[in-house]
Write a structure and sequence with these properties.
Blueprint (H helix, E strand, L loop, with lengths): L7 H18 L6 H7 L13 H30 L3 H27 L3 H26 L1
Helix pairs in contact: 1-3, 1-5, 2-5, 3-5, 4-5
InterPro entries: DUF1761 (IPR013879)
Keywords: Membrane, Transmembrane, Transmembrane helix
Organism: Microcella pacifica
C-alpha cells in the first residue's frame, strides 16, 4: 500500500508549514480584518468565538488531509517519472490549490452569499499554503 511508502516526516513538515501559513494569513495584521469585514462582521468583535478548540482541531485535520493528498500525488508522479523536487512539489501544490481548493469552493461561497472577496481571501491562503507544503514535500522527499 502506497501510504506506507509516503515520507511521513515530509508530510509532518508540510503540515506544519501549511498550518503556520494559515495562521499568518488570517492574522490580525494580515487578512483577518478584511476577511471579517467582507463577511459583514466587526473584526474587533467577531461572532462565535466559543468552541475554538474544535475549530482549530478540525482545521488542523483538514490541513493534514490536504498535505497527505498532495504527498500522494507527488508519490505517484515520482513512481511514473522520478522525484518532482522542490520546484515540482511547489508547482503541484499550486495546481492543486487552484484546481481543487479554489475551484471547488467558489460556488459554495457564491451561493452561500459570502461573495467573491471572501472566497479570494480564503482560497488565497489555501493556494499559498499548498504551494509551500508542496515545496517542503519536494525538498524532503
Amino acid at each position: 500500500m502506497f501510504l506506507l511508502e509516503l515520507n511521513w516526516l515530509g508530510i509532518l513538515a508540510g503540515f506544519v508549514v501549511y498550518f503556520i501559513t494559515g495562521a499568518i494569513w488570517f492574522g490580525p495584521k494580515t487578512f483577518y480584518p478584511a476577511w471579517m469585514r467582507a463577511k459583514g462582521h466587526d473584526p474587533a468583535n467577531p461572532p462565535g468565538m466559543h468552541g475554538m478548540t474544535v475549530v482549530f482541531g478540525l482545521t488542523a485535520v483538514g490541513a493534514l488531509v490536504q498535505v497527505i493528498a498532495l504527498a500522494s500525488v507527488l508519490w505517484f508522479v515520482a513512481e511514473a517519472q522520478g522525484a518532482a523536487g522542490p520546484l515540482g512539489g511547489a508547482l503541484a501544490g499550486l495546481l492543486i490549490g487552484i484546481g481543487f481548493a479554489a475551484a471547488s469552493s467558489l460556488s459554495h461561497r457564491l451561493f452561500g452569499g459570502d461573495g467573491f472577496r471572501v472566497w479570494a481571501i480564503e482560497v488565497g491562503g489555501d493556494i499559498v499554503g499548498l504551494t509551500l507544503a508542496g515545496l517542503v514535500l519536494g525538498l524532503i522527499g
